[in-house]
Design a protein that fits this description.
The protein is mainly beta. Helix content is about 10%, strand content about 35%. Strands 1, 2, 3, 4, 5, 6, 9, 10, 11 and 12 form a ten-stranded mixed β-sheet that branches. A two-stranded antiparallel ribbon has the order 7-8. Strand 7 and strand 8 form a beta hairpin.
């Protein structure tokens, strides 16, 4: 039950710890998505909450939902203005050391054979990500990412093209893994005028512990 995964709740918004594998938008196949759980996330309101942003289906962690239309507009504006602080954790398939900033514009490319994906492109949309290596185990590295922009697949592409190592379990930019995609939205902070900020921290998922990074 997603009602058991609420990290923040007030009259304007809630943040849930979205499980890996749950799509935010309803798939064309009609499979289970966030929409199927919204009725359990009303907490006394008649209106269903609405997702303010998106996480990839296989990414877990902090997902912000609004509880009324006015709040939804304000929160979306905060995302569009890049005022939202986001911290992600990812395990990369390679040894990475140090810290820095990846400035790599991103563009969408597609083909009938391979479908669509994002790539680094000089004429793409600006994308910036701060990163810091935290620990290395068995040829893999736990990395903290703090994206300054919110482009589609930004961390996944910046990991591959900026650091030379794909996120473990990424079937598009790397290779599949039995543990799944090791990408987690660990923290979210949204400033609000005249109110305390929305702040949420999502615990480290079990799949990271199984990968040997449970102590970081």
């Amino acid at each position: 039950m997603l009602a058991d995964k609420v990290l923040f709740l007030d009259g304007e918004a809630l943040v849930i710890d979205k499980p890996a594998g749950l799509p935010v938008d309803r798939p064309r196949s009609g499979a289970i998505s966030l929409e199927n759980h919204l009725d359990s996330l009303t907490f006394g309101f008649k209106r269903w909450p609405m997702a303010v942003h998106r996480l990839d289906q296989d990414t877990s962690g902090c997902l912000l939902l609004s509880r009324n239309p006015k709040a939804h507009a304000r929160l979306q504006q905060a995302f569009e203005a890049n005022r939202v602080a986001k911290r992600y954790l990812a395990v990369l398939d390679g040894v990475v050391d140090g810290e820095g900033v990846i400035d790599l514009p991103l563009a969408k490319v597609s083909s009938k054979e391979a479908g669509w994906r994002m790539v680094g492109a000089p004429d793409g949309k600006a994308a910036s990500t701060m990163w810091r290596a935290l620990a290395t185990r068995d040829g893999r590295t736990l990395v903290e990412f703090r994206p300054g922009t919110g482009r589609t697949h930004q961390i996944r592409v910046h990991a591959l093209e900026g650091l030379g190592a794909a996120v473990v379990g990424d079937p598009v930019y790397g290779r599949a893994d039995p543990l799944g995609l090791l990408l987690h939205a660990a923290e979210l902070t949204v400033p609000r005028e005249g109110k305390p900020p929305i702040e949420a921290v999502a615990p480290l998922p079990e799949r990271f512990v199984k990968a040997g990074f449970g102590d970081e």
